[in-house]
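Handoff note, outgoing to incoming analyst
You'll be picking up this chain. Sequence as last confirmed:
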Amino acid sequence: MSQATLTSRGENQFAVSGNMNFATVPELLSQSERLFSAASAIDIDLSAVLHADSAGLALLLEWLRYGKHNSKSVHYRNVPAQLRLLAAISEVESLLEG
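Most recent structure output, in case you need it:
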């Protein structure tokens, strides 16, 4: 089974590593619920994402929804080309730009 991890890198800074897919997104969502609650803003580095599918894109959109409903800005850095392509096909690429 593939793995993914969401880690805190300090105040409001987070990073995802591993695969963002149907198998790993539930765990990433669970990790984010714990980590994001104390943050005043959410800045996520995606440079260590190895592979992503539509479930990974759905998670990024869910994190944007979370931020909006909790008055926290959400920004993504180093979005992998694979996720950018999925976002473009889905016509949501502007949502991933900070």
